[in-house]
Amino acid sequence: MNFLDIHAHILPEVDDGARDMETAIKLLEMLKEQGVTHVIATPHFYPDTDNVEQFTETVSKAYNELKKEIEYKDLPTVYLGCELRYFGGMGKSRAVKQFAIQNTNYLLLELPYGAPITKTVISDIIDIKEVLGLTPILAHIERYSKVPGFKKLLKLISDGVALAHINAGAVISKEDAKLCEKLIKGGCISYLASDTHSVVNRPPYIKQALDTISSKLGRSAANRLVIKSNRLSDEIEGIYEQY
Ligand SMILES: [Fe+2]
């Protein structure tokens, strides 16, 4: 069975993730040990401070170098995506399309921390789906559980407007384990992701998280997450094959 990790800061020297090629390879080795077969590299893009051309150039270079480095190694397949930080009006900005996960209509969206989920945020997310034709995947949704308007995010998910992932680290943490269980049970979570940044401080915990979900919520709950990740990797591979 394959497993696709949809959120990982594994590209070397582009953001606060892997600081060099050696770290990138080590993270891929760790992911592989945990059963991950496919990974989407998702470097941060902050619209307030980052420059699109510079970002595209730096990220493509790092991605191509990493692909070359792992070409003959038995490591997970790496796809290119991005973790795009929310900005007001993004639902009507055609430029957002270039940040979608490689050749797909999925967008990994990071909401600002601690800020309330306002009507503008909600209508932007709806527009991402309806105007831009992209399916937003809300990154680490567990982080927003205490902000005003969190329930509106859950409503977007139940309405089929957005998808969401939880971080594997949250599933095995003391603080967020119960919340993650509740979100999974409530059918709000499509994906489990590592959001790994580094070998020591923010390593991947995919296997531990799947084991935890399996022991607390039953094997079928863990399997559902694996199956959804498989469907997405099949979709991406299918798109690749058409090229
Ligand atoms: Fe991230």
Descriptive account of the structure:
There is one protein chain. The chain has helices at 21-33, 52-70, 119-130, 150-158, 168-171, 177-185, 206-217, 219-241; strands at 4-8, 38-41, 44-45, 77-80, 83-85, 106-110, 135-138, 163-167, 191-193. It contains eight helices and nine strands. The two termini are 25 Å apart. It has 243 residues and is an alpha/beta fold. Helix 7 (206-217) crosses helix 8 (219-241). Strands 3-5-6-7-8-9 form a six-stranded parallel β-sheet. Strands 1-2-4 form a three-stranded parallel β-sheet. The relative contact order is 0.16. It has a single domain (4-241), classed as TIM Barrel (Alpha-Beta Barrel). The model has no long low-confidence stretch (mean pLDDT 96). Bound molecules: fe (ii) ion. The site of fe (ii) ion (FE2) has 4 residues, from loops.
Helix proportion: 40-55%
CA-CA gap between termini? 25 Å
SS field, number of helical segments: 8
CATH class: Alpha Beta
The ordered H/E elements are EHEEHEEEHEHEHHEHH
Average pLDDT for all residues: 96
Computed CA radius of gyration, to the nearest angstrom: 17 Å
Number of domains: 1
Main sheet attributes: strand count, strand direction, barrel closure: 6 strands, parallel
Strand order of the largest sheet: 3-5-6-7-8-9
Bound ligands: fe (ii) ion
